[in-house]
Amino acid sequence: MRPVLVALAAVALSACAGKLEKVTRTQAAADFKCDADKLKVRGDEVYGKYHVAGCGQKGVYSAQCLMGDCSAQRLQGE
Fold first, then answer.
1. What are the extents of the domains in the chain?
2. For residues 28 and 35, is the Cβ–Cβ distance under 8 A?
3. At CA 43, angle to CA 11 and CA 71, rounded to 5?
């Protein structure tokens, strides 16, 4: 039973990570006034932290999902 729970947790985390990256890309596109497909998004070693670059700009974002509602915010000074 335990291996099944571990596998389900891994799948849930990877699905959540995909949502976090998507919401980060969308927010950065709005902030940079740039097409989302022109941005490079790289996950950090810290879960939910992303480095975004494109259209001559770059920034660091923190993303989270709470009860299915995902959001990303640009971190100041990074």
1. 2-74
2. no
3. 75
